[in-house]
Amino acid sequence: MPSCVLAYSGGLDTSVILGWLQDEGYDVHCVYVDVGQPCEDREAILKKAHDCGAKSARIVDAQEEMCRDFAFPVLQWQAKYENIYLLGTSIARPLISKVCLQVCREVGADAYAHGATGKGNDQCRFQLAAEALNPDIKIIAPWRIEKFRKAFPGRTELIAYCEQKGIPVKASAAKPYSSDENCLHISYEAGKLEDPNVCGVDIVDFGMTVSPQAAPDAVESVSIQFEKGIPVGVNGKKLSPLQIVLELNKIAGRNGVGRIDIVENRFVGMKSRGVYEAPAMTVLYHAHQTLEQLTLDRDLVNLRDRLSPEVAQMVYYGFWYVSKMDALLAFIKEAQQPVTGEVVLGLYKGNIINQGRTSPNSLYDEAIASMEGGGSYNQTDAEGFLRIMGLPSRVQARARARKY
């Protein structure tokens, strides 16, 4: 029989897909890639997969790798999709594909299946990553297959199939929205959120953050240590990338930091509305940029900022394993060499306040910047500088005067 690796969550959709793939004649190897999604009993998920006929099932914990090798390089780029979204879901998908493709090699499978729909971004991220890692892999996306969609036009048919096959699922009432969580963030979309005129805060039951109104009435200070643009500690304690994210999720979350509401442009061309919370990454982006203000020169920051939207777009679309991204990641690693130091932030009711920043590589020279007399900056030098800088403007002004 042909074999297939399924990116498996144990939920309704992938449970049905597991049974359907077997009906189509596949041996199915289920892979639950742990990127920090909530799950009360992972062993129960594996047992369920085996009970439902999976050839094999395994859990792969990829949380540390996601923070270290995916989220933190994107942080170094200060990459935000459409200037606001911190790419929490986008970052996870190429890693999930990488893990599943590794399992494909181990078990000799020639197909990779996932449960992403044909309307969203995740199908792009899964497939573009998989084909870059193995151009010969067969991608099975059941929601893009007419036969599958005809068999399961709605939730009722999915539940009926599980009952027929003896597949245990929690057939609860549909929520007014859907959510996707990992250790970096939670995204909320669909349902009532599809009306962009509805207040998302009134609908969403946020899982990582309290509302700013319910946050403490006192500023909480937090210090973050960086080495070469990478976070390495919180409040003076050295931590792993995952530990940093989890610790800051708690600190920032209890202070109401990290919520956004956006109408974004999907890769497939439509606009969609999403509500996101990413407490740790919001604080890290702010702290990182604050430290860069001390340590990076103007022209290098300007170059990075011109390229940053392109990096964000590549991550959002799913172009992670391409030569262009390799080159961009190599560039940012070199550009971030001076970004070492500590930033102290005050968190208060959803706000982030700069309280202090220090670096052994600081380019800030108080003797030059001082507004007091006696500094090392000679203001007379500005006369010649401005005459040279203003030369093109003066020439153009005279030409315009002659013409008009």
Automatic annotation (TrEMBL):
Pathway note: Amino-acid biosynthesis; L-arginine biosynthesis; L-arginine from L-ornithine and carbamoyl phosphate: step 2/3
Taxonomic superkingdom: Bacteria
Main location: cytoplasm
Annotated protein name in UniProt: Argininosuccinate synthase
Catalytic activity entry: L-citrulline + L-aspartate + ATP = 2-(N(omega)-L-arginino)succinate + AMP + diphosphate + H(+)
Residues reported to bind ATP: A7, Y8, S9, G10, G11, L12, D13, T14, S15, G115
PROSITE patterns named in the record: ARGININOSUCCIN_SYN_1, ARGININOSUCCIN_SYN_2
Subcellular compartments: Cytoplasm
NCBIfam families for this protein: argG, PRK00509.1
GO biological process, one term: L-arginine biosynthetic process
Keyword Nucleotide-binding listed: yes
Gene: argG
EC number: 6.3.4.5
Top-level class of the enzyme under EC nomenclature: ligase
List of residues binding L-aspartate: T117, N121, D122
Database matches in InterPro entries: Arginosuc_syn_C (IPR048268), Arginosuc_syn_N (IPR048267), Arginosuc_synth (IPR001518), Arginosuc_synth_CS (IPR018223), Arginosuc_synth_type_1_subfam (IPR023434), AS_cat/multimer_dom_body (IPR024074), Rossmann-like_a/b/a_fold (IPR014729)
Domain Arginosuccinate synthase C-terminal: 177-395
Family under the similarity heading: Belongs to the argininosuccinate synthase family. Type 1 subfamily.
HAMAP family given in the database record: Arg_succ_synth_type1 (MF_00005)
Keyword Ligase set for record: yes
Origin species: Planctopirus hydrillae
Alphabetic keyword roster: Amino-acid biosynthesis, Arginine biosynthesis, ATP-binding, Cytoplasm, Ligase, Nucleotide-binding
Subunit structure, as described in the record: Homotetramer.
